[in-house]
Amino acid sequence: MSTKAELACVYASLILVDDDVAVTGEKINTILKAANVEVEPYWPGLFAKALEGINVKDLITNIGSGVGAAPAGGAAPAAASAAAPAAEAKKEEKKEEESDQSDDDMGFGLFD
Questions:
Q1: What's the CA gap between 44 and 48, in Å, rounded?
Q2: Burial per residue of 27-52, b for 16 or more beta-carbon CB atoms within 10 angstroms, e otherwise
Q3: Which of 61, 36, 46 has its CA nearest to residue 13?
Q4: With contact defined as beta carbons under 8 Å apart, do 31 and 21 qualify?
Q5: Distance between CA 66 and CA 68 in Å, rounded?
Q6: Stretch (H or E) spanning 49
Q7: What pLDDT, on a 0 to 100 scale, did the predictor assign at position 48?
Q8: What span, in angstroms and rounded, lies between the C-alpha atoms of 23 and 110?
Q9: Model pLDDT for residues 56-71, shown as the tens digit of each residue
Q10: pLDDT value of position 83
Q11: Poorest-pLDDT segment among 35-44, 63-72, 86-95
């Protein structure tokens, strides 16, 4: 039951946010009643408290912009992209060789 209740509250919250309406427990409950979805009475209030002070639209639009995310646009020039696979293959070979050697330098093994 909890996954159904959680999803129902998430969808109700997203509906409210999309309509630029403040997310409150009462409003989530109203949407759930209109959809004939029964949840435990604490779920709407829990979601309302969790989303209090959070800009959900910004959260959704910035999902992939965390640290280590790939850049969104900008392709490399054609000449550079043609030479890139060969250079990457050489780099990968060097990295593999270095990683094998670095394990030997540690001075201990798994079964020592």
A1: 6
A2: bbbebbeeeebebeeebbebbbeebe
A3: 46
A4: no
A5: 6
A6: helix 42-50
A7: 94
A8: 55
A9: 888 888 887 765 445 5
A10: 44
A11: 86-95
pLDDT recorded at residue 28: 95
Q: How far apart are CA 82 and CA 88, in angstroms?
A: 11
As given in the structure block, the two tokens for residue 106 are 């540690």
- Residue 59 has a pLDDT of 86
Please identify which residue in the block is written with the tokens 């800009």: 55
Q: Whose structure tokens read 């427990």?
A: 25
Task: Choose among 23, 24, 29: nearest CA to 5.
Answer: 29
Mean pLDDT, the chain, whole residue set: 74
Tokens of 67: 């640290």
Three-state SS at 58: helix
Q: Tell me: pLDDT of 16 over 80.
A: yes
**8 with 44: CB under 8 angstroms?**
no
Phi, psi of 106 (to 5 degrees): -75, -25
Longest dimension (CA), the chain: 67
